[in-house]
Amino acid sequence: MRILASCFRFRPSRETLVPLILGFMTWALSFVMREATEPIWISIFVRDIGMIYIIGIFLPLHYIQRSNYEFWEFGLTFKKWYIVLPMNLLFGMILLYILMSENPETGFYLHRSTLAKVGYIMMAGVFEVIFFYSFQRTLFERAFGIIPGIVLASLFYSFHHVGFQPEYGKLFLVGLMYATLFRLGNSILVIYPFFWGVGACFDVLIQSQAVSPIVYPATRSLYLVVLILIIIVRLSKKTKGETRYVWIPKILLLD
């Protein structure tokens, strides 16, 4: 009964609104990307600044800290990295072997443009693992249990691709796989960077027939790296013994 109770429960609260609201916002921004194709900078700004940085990384990390949670509670930890990371690498190597075996005629060459695209995909991956598999899944699990938490996070992950890769069924299954592994290991290092990176890069650069092309990948990768480093510094910076917080919409806080 205890196992069943942890898998399924119904204890939603005001906090449950946070992943719901932010999740629907990712859908809305993705829809804007689909409709606002010209000029291209609108789509880039919506994706990189609005979705990836602000909603996907900035607000979740600050919410966790502002709410007095520990980052390890959301799997954002390097604890036992010497065990988890080699497993991640092994999973990635096995996945790469399977994908290459299933696609023997695939040509994949590491030239400058490809490396730039890989860099951008990995930066977008920071958003996906933090927002869907860490933040959303954990808060949904606290409200509805382990299995609904995984399913809901996977649904939001799948449909947030509406503006640039509308392959919802396949992506939902991918989300289930990554969310389940993340939950089992309770660590971001279970899937990122190797296992997640192999799957995402192979899908976006080779396998998918529906994904939108990545434009200006080098420039976008560079400023995303800078922005992510800035938020890491701000999260760790203390002022007069107290954490320095930035503004978060009041509806997303439990005051």
Describe this structure in words.
By secondary structure, this protein is an all-alpha fold. It has one domain. It is built from nine helices and two strands. The longest helix has 33 residues.
Helix content: 55-70%
Strand line-up in the sheet with most strands: 1-2
Domain tally: 1
The best one-word shape is globular
Q: Termini, distance in Å? A: 34 Å
Q: Can you count the beta strands?
A: 2
Outline of this structure?
The protein has 255 residues and is mainly α.
Task: Identify the notable features of this structure and list them briefly.
mainly alpha, 68% helix, globular, disordered C terminus
How is the secondary structure organized here?
Elements: H1 2-7, H2 17-35, H3 40-66, H4 81-102, H5 112-144, H6 146-159, H7 168-185, H8 194-207, H9 217-236, E1 238-239, E2 242-243
